[in-house]
Specification:
The structure holds two protein chains of two kinds. Chain A is mostly helical. Chain A has one domain (about 5-120). Chain A has helices spanning about 5-25, 30-50, 50-60, 65-120. Chain A is elongated, with a radius of gyration of 25 Å. The N and C termini of chain A lie far apart (about 85 Å). Chain B is of the alpha/beta class. Chain B has a single domain (about 5-225), classed as Alpha-Beta Complex (Spore Coat Polysaccharide Biosynthesis Protein SpsA, Chain A), CATH 3.90.550. In chain B, strands 3-2-1-4-6-5-7 form a seven-stranded mixed sheet, with helices on both faces. The two termini of chain B are about 30 Å apart. Chain B has helices spanning about 15-25, 45-50, 60-75, 95-105, 125-145, 160-165, 175-185, 210-225, and strands at about 5-10, 30-35, 55, 80-85, 110-115, 155-160, 190-195. Chain B is built from eight helices and seven strands; from the N terminus they run E-H-E-H-E-H-E-H-E-H-E-H-H-E-H. Classes of the chains: A mainly alpha, B alpha/beta. At the A-B interface, helix 4 of A face strand 3 and helix 3 of B.
């Protein structure tokens, strides 16, 4: 990897971390979900500073250019994060469904109580 | 013994009143609850106007979520028997007592109204019957139990199953999957012959376009359900 590429990756990485940090401070991102992003950013930074890690890994797997090794890992990490998000989404959908059903039942209960009250007043 | 009919309704304004009338005239001892799944037509207005007994979902949940609301309501209100009954006029209320009696007399957990025991009345289209046959085959293969009409939405169940369904019910096309779930738990299911009508109004929840998704989803759901531990 050229020095220019390494500097470029480092800048993107640091900007990304800064933005994630900003999102957490503004309460727009849960720290729980952000942790995996921080881990990845840290990993990328370490590999960027010590490219020998990538070179060794690429060599073991028979990948000729170390940067392709980085792309592969980045892709796998992204997939992992998407899967975690899908799980989170499923849990969320279940909660929304449950709330929705409860609201329908409470709505009915309120109607019944109001009717009772009206009948008493008459 | 408290009995309730659960009527999921999505855009059934044209037939919902007749459905309720059918239940009140042709069955005995059944309460009913309509679950309006955020219809985009006047289903809610019709319910209000005719003072029907209804639950109104603020968001559209799909058939599974709507029916589950009914089971939850049935559980919380102490019902012993619940029947799922389509709001589109397909189901005939004259079987309600027969099915409920069959359930209690034989100490069963669920009774399914099947079109394919006596082969009378509306038999569904050829392609759909093929799909149903496939599910019958698959369930027989995986559980050893023959269910001739696993997609029938006309089902009576006892309080044990009401509790189970109010806790856990699939989002869409729930019937075959939940039946495998019951068999897996050792619950007793039997079928009785019923005659179904072609739907009065509204559109079937399974359009031709969705049928591939339907077959795949339900097949996979059955396989996964079978693999779950007790």
């Amino acid at each position: 990897m050229t020095v220019t590429l390494r500097i470029f990756i480092a800048i993107i990485d640091i900007l990304g971390v800064a933005y994630i940090f900003h999102l957490i401070r503004k309460n727009r991102l849960e720290l729980k979900y952000a942790l995996s992003w921080f881990v990845i950013s840290l990993f990328v930074l370490v590999v960027d500073i010590f490219p020998v890690i990538m070179e060794k890994l690429a060599d073991i797997l028979g990948i000729t250019t170390p940067v392709n090794m980085m792309f592969l890992l980045g892709f796998l990490f992204s997939l992992a994060i998407i899967l975690v998000l899908t799980v989170a989404l499923s849990i969320n959908a279940g909660s929304v469904k449950r709330l929705n059903q409860k609201v329908a039942m409470l709505d009915k209960r309120i109607r019944e109580l109001e009717e009772k009250k009206e009948n008493k007043q008459l | 013994m408290k009995k309730i009919v659960i009527i999921p309704a999505y855009n059934e304004s044209a037939s919902i009143v007749n459905t309720v009338k059918d239940i009140q005239e042709n069955s005995e001892g059944f309460d009913y609850i309509i679950v309006n799944d955020r219809s985009t037509d006047h289903t809610l207005d019709v319910c209000k106007e005719h003072h029907l007994n209804y639950l109104n979902l603020p968001l559209n949940l799909g058939i599974g979520g709507a029916v589950q609301t009914g089971y939850w309501y049935a559980y919380e209100n102490g019902y012993d028997i619940a029947v799922q009954f389509d709001g589109d006029g397909q189901h005939d209320a004259k079987y309600l007592n027969e099915m409920a009696d069959y359930l209690t007399k034989n100490d069963l957990d669920m009774v399914i109204g099947s079109r394919f025991i006596k082969y009378e009345g509306f038999q569904s289209s050829g392609a759909r019957r093929m799909g149903i046959k496939w599910f019958t085959f698959l369930i027989k293969l995986l559980t050893g139990k023959k269910i001739t009409d696993p997609t029938s939405g006309y089902r009576v169940c006892n309080r044990k199953v009401i509790k189970l369904f109010s806790d856990n019910y699939p989002k869409d096309y729930p019937e075959p999957e939940t039946e495998v779930g019951l068999i897996r738990r050792g619950y007793k299911i039997e079928e009785v012959p019923v005659v179904m009508r072609a739907r009065e109004e509204g559109v079937s929840s399974i359009s031709l376009k969705k049928s591939v998704y339907y077959m795949l989803k339900v097949t996979l759901a059955i396989l996964i359900e079978r693999s779950r531990k007790n």
